Amino acid sequence: MIKKVHHVAIAVKNLDEALELYEHLFGTKPSKIETLQQQGVKAALLPMAEGGEIELLEPIDPQSGVAKFLESRGEGIHHICFEVENVDQELRMLADKGVQLIDKHGRLGLAGKVGFIHPKSTKGVLIELAQKV
Q: Would you state the pLDDT for residue 50?
C-alpha cells in the first residue's frame, strides 16, 4: 500500500546548473547527492519543507534510461516515487495482478530499496516504489 509521495524526479542535462537554479528559486539545498553507476545517473534529493522531495537526475551513461528520456523528450518530469512499507511484497502483488514491471525485485537506489513499474501499465507514468532502509 502506498504510504505517501516520496519524490518527483526531474531529468536534467546538467545537475550542477539545476541545483543552482532550484536553490535560487526555492532556497532548497540537496540532502543527498550520489552517483548511481548501476542506473547510469548522478542524482540529488532536494527536501521540501513539509515532506517529500524533488529528485534531479543527470545521466552519466549515454545508454541509460534517463539519457534516452532526455534525448527523446528533453528536460522535465521523469517519474514519481511512492513510499511503501515493503518493495518486494508490493512488486510481487503487482506482478500477480498482471502489471508489467521493470524490476521484479527491489534494488538499492537513492531513495532506499526501490523498484520500478513500467509506464505501459500505469497510463504512461513511470512509477518508482521506495522502501526506507
A: 86
